[in-house]
Design a protein that fits this description.
two-stranded antiparallel ribbon; 38% helix; binds ligand FNR; FMN; Alpha-hydoxy_acid_DH_FMN; signal
Length: 344
C-alpha cells in the first residue's frame, strides 16, 4: 500500500502483513502462548472510559507536546521501544528507525539484537550526531563481556542503558516456533538486584530496568537507586497472562503514587492510538513506548517511521483537545474513569 494511503498506526500492521514474508511478519506479530497478554495489551485501553471536560481553553495543546526524558528534550512524550531484527522489515535494518526518530525528534532505543551493528546505527544519528539514543541490553555473557559491552555502548554515545529484566527464561512463542523464528537462547539468566548494583558500578550511564510488572518491584527499583523504571510485559511476548503496563501503572497509582514523583516511569505495550498514550500519561507515566507499530512502519524506511510519529502526535493533540486538557504535561487521573467497564 502506498504510504500516503495509511491513516492510523494499525494500518502499518496491515501493510506489513501483506508486504513481509510470513515468517518475518510472524516474528514481529507473535505473542507468548495463548497470546492473552498480547490481546489484553491492546484491549485494556477500551475498558476505561474517558471523562471529557468541555468549554475549556485548549488552544495551546500542540505546544504542550514536547517533553524531557531523563533530562533530554524531545518533541513528544512517546518513543520507539527496543525491538530485535529490524532487518526483517527492511534491508536497511534499524537505519530507518534511527533516521525516522531523528526527523520526528523522538527517542529511539536500539535493541542489542538489532540486525545492524551498533556502530552503524549510531553512525546514522541525526542532529550532527547529537541525536539521543538509549541502548537496550540483555546480559548473555560473563562479567568481562558485559564490561566490554558497556564500554562499547559508552563509546558509541548512548545516553542510558535499558536493561531488560522480564526475560530470565524464553518466551513460549508457538506462532513463531512454527516458522523457526522464535527466541531460542534456552539459558536461564540469573540476573539479580545484587548484580544490578555491580553493573551500575561498571558504567557512568544510568541503567533503567525494563519489564517492571508489580508495585513491589517498582518500589524495590526505587530503593535500589534507579533513575527511571520501565513498565512492560515485552509486548506480551514473554509470560502469558502477565499484566499490561496500564494495569501496572494503575496498581502503582493506587498503592504507591509517590513513585511517579520519585523516578521517571516509562511504559509500553499495545499503544496504538492517541487516547492510549493519554491514559498512561494521566497516571503519571513520563513517556510511552511503541514497538510493533514502528517495526511495521520501517518497511517504508525513515519516511514511514516519520509518518507514524506524525500520526501519533496528531492524535495525541486532537484527543487531548477533545478531552478538554489544556496542557498534556498536566493531564491527571481525573480525566479517566478508572472503574473498569467490564468490572475487571
Ligand atoms: C520486542 N521487544 C524487545 N524488548 C527488548 O527489551 N529487547 C528486544 O530485543 C526486543 N525485541 C522485540 C522484537 C519484536 C519484534 C517485538 C515486537 C518486541 C519488546 C519491545 O521492546 C516492547 O516492549 C513491545 O514491543 C511493546 O509492545 P507493542 O508496542 O509492540 O505492542
Amino acid at each position: 500500500a502506498p504510504l500516503k494511503s495509511l491513516v492510523g498506526l494499525p494500518d502499518f500492521q496491515w501493510s506489513a502483513r501483506h508486504y513481509m514474508n510470513t515468517s518475518a511478519y510472524t516474528y514481529y506479530r507473535n505473542g507468548a502462548a495463548g497470546e492473552w497478554s498480547y490481546r489484553n495489551n491492546l484491549e485494556v485501553f477500551s475498558r476505561f472510559r474517558m471523562r471529557p471536560r468541555v468549554l475549556r481553553d485548549i488552544t495551546n495543546i500542540e505546544a504542550s507536546l514536547p517533553t524531557t526524558i531523563l533530562g533530554y528534550n524531545f518533541s513528544a512524550p512517546f518513543f520507539i521501544s527496543p525491538c530485535a531484527r529490524g532487518g526483517y522489515a527492511n534491508p536497511d535494518g534499524e537505519l530507518g528507525l534511527v533516521k525516522g526518530a531523528a526527523q520526528g525528534n523522538i527517542l529511539y532505543m536500539p535493541s542489542l539484537y538489532s540486525s545492524k551493528p551498533m556502530k552503524d546505527i549510531y553512525a546514522a544519528r541525526g542532529n550532527g550526531s547529537q541525536q539521543v539514543l538509549f541502548q537496550q541490553v540483555y546480559l548473555d555473557g560473563g562479567m568481562n563481556e558485559t564490561q566490554q559491552l558497556f564500554r562499547d555502548i559508552e563509546a558509541a554515545g548512548a545516553k542510558a542503558i535499558i536493561l531488560t529484566v522480564d526475560s530470565p527464561g524464553d518466551g513460549i512463542r508457538h506462532r513463531a516456533a512454527r516458522y523457526s523464528v522464535g527466541s531460542a537462547n534456552s539459558a536461564y539468566s540469573l540476573l539479580t538486584w545484587d548484580l544490578y548494583q555491580e553493573l551500575s558500578k561498571m558504567t557512568s550511564l544510568p541503567i533503567i530496568p525494563k519489564g517492571i510488572q508489580t508495585v513491589e518491584d517498582a518500589r524495590e527499583a526505587v530503593k535500589q537507586g534507579v533513575k527511571a523504571i520501565f513498565l512492560s510485559n515485552h509486548g506480551g511476548r514473554q509470560l502469558d497472562t502477565s499484566p499490561s503496563s496500564l494495569e501496572v501503572a494503575l496498581e502503582i497509582y493506587n498503592e504507591d503514587p509517590e513513585i511517579f514523583k520519585q523516578v521517571e516511569v516509562f511504559a509500553d505495550g499495545g499503544v496504538r492510538y492517541g487516547s492510549d498514550v493519554l491514559k498512561l500519561l494521566s497516571l503519571g507515566v513520563k513517556a510511552v513506548g511503541l514497538g510493533r507499530p514502528f517495526m511495521y512502519a520501517n518497511i517504508y524506511g525513515a519516511e514511514g517511521v516519520k509518518k507514524a510519529v506524525d500520526i501519533l502526535k496528531y492524535e495525541i493533540a486532537n484527543d487531548a483537545a477533545n478531552l478538554g486538557v489544556a496542557d498534556i504535561k498536566k493531564i491527571g487521573p481525573e480525566f479517566v474513569n478508572w472503574k473498569s467497564v467490564n468490572g475487571w
